[in-house]
Amino acid sequence: RPGMARPKIVQETDDTSLPAFRALAEELGVTLLIGSIAVALPDEERFANRSFMIGPDGGVIARYDKIHMFDVEVGDGQSYRESRAYRPGTEAVLATAPFGKIGMTICYDVRFPHLYRRLAQAGAGILTVPAAFTRVTGEAHWHVLLRARAIETGSFVIAPAQGGCHEDGRETYGHSLIISPWGEVLAEADHAEPGIICADVDLHAVAQARGRIPSLGNDREFPLTEY
User: Fold this and answer.
1) Which of 69, 134, 191, 194 makes the best surface tag, with the fewest CB within 10 Å?
2) Are 126 and 87 in contact, with CB atoms under 8 Å apart?
3) Rounded CA gap, 196 and 176, in Å?
4) In the chain, domain spans
5) pLDDT tens digit string along 198-215?
6) Contact of 51 with 64, CB cutoff 8 Å
């Protein structure tokens, strides 16, 4: 679709892709999760790794800048230092969509369960995790992490994922997933081929799962003693 290509990284106000996605959401009457995409910042050289939630009227409901930077050695011969190019976000974001509250996260955030628990305790029944896991980490951890976040919080997890070989030599894992609040995989995409997955997201299942395992309400603060 014209306007959705992003030839360079620019500030949000100059990005031609965002208006195109907003128009698409309004045309289809859907809530649309965009990104994450790189956004130039006016006050420093690093970018923001930003995700957008767009409503069916084409308006931006919420923006989320990725909090946890992927600064790791993953064992596939490559090292990653996301914080060199991207500024970490500082706020968790709960988006209010027409059908419920959505906790917005990005990729490496999924390894920090306290973020998801906080979002669920604030009212999120759906957690989004757009991601580009490497093949090495994806094969080992992708399904386990996402199912764990769904089970721990009693939430639906929707995780669109890049897959296949990229021009810079990276290989990403793919396997976009939709997971129920009980940890069941409701839909899964392929590794490398573009595709669409669908599932019924009945938010009554959130209340049912949390009623059966009420761990969100059973939290207790405790001291740590070292011997």
Assistant:
1) 194
2) no
3) 9
4) 68-216
5) 999 999 999 999 999 999
6) yes
Left if phi > 0, otherwise alpha if psi is -120 to 50, otherwise beta: which for 73?
beta
Take residue 168 and report the two structure tokens written for it.
């810079």
Strands 126-128 and 100-104: what pairing? Answer: parallel
pLDDT recorded at residue 78: 75
The one-letter amino acid at 204:
H
Contact 164, 192 (CB under 8 A): yes
Omega within 30 of 0 (cis) for the link into 176: no
Residue 24 DSSP label: H
Contact between 209 and 154 under an 8 Å Cβ cutoff? The reply is yes
CA distance 45 to 58: 30
Residue type, 166: H
Mean pLDDT by 10 residues, the chain (227 residues): 64 92 97 94 94 98 98 78 96 97 99 98 99 93 99 99 86 96 97 91 98 96 97
pLDDT the model gives residue 6 = 55
Containing 5, the helix (H) or strand (E) segment is: none
CATH of domain 68-216: 3.60.110.10
> Which residues make beta-bridge pairs with 131?
161
Q: Are 55 and 25 in contact (CB under 8 A)?
A: yes
Question: Is-contact 121 156, C-beta < 8 A?
Answer: no
Q: What is the largest CA-CA distance in the chain?
A: 63
